[in-house]
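Apologies for my clumsy wording, but can you show me some protein sequence, whichever is easiest, together with the matching structure tokens, please?
=====
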Amino acid sequence: MSNPDPLYIYFLSMLYCSWCQLLSGLRTLTEVYKDLYTKKTVKSRELWLKLTNLTPYGVHSNWRIFDPHPLMVSRARGSRLWDVDGNEYIDFNMGFGTLVVGHANPALLEKVKQKLDDGTTYGHETELSYRLSEVLTRRYGYDMVRFASTGSE
């Protein structure tokens, strides 16, 4: 194999140096998206800063701690969320799986509204508690079930 041309070596070294200089000025994709998020979520940051005076880390769940600041949601419908800044997001979390029918599902909302018209907390047993107990004992083979709260809900 013959020795490479010195001009070729010079050209490659200059290309390499230029490439390194270019890369040294680039930011990581994470940094780019962090800056974009910060610019698009000014109201979320302001609300979060206020909340940090009232609750640890400004969130009510450690899962919501997010750098540079958590998302502050104002509403949701179907698979979409909107923050207090008006930005729209796809909700891939969906309440950790509890929202299989999506946020504010019209059919579910209608049923909830009907039940709210009948009153809320009675402090007594209802036909619905019987029906749900029946479904659960049949489906999972339980002898009995009891619905209770800890008082912290």
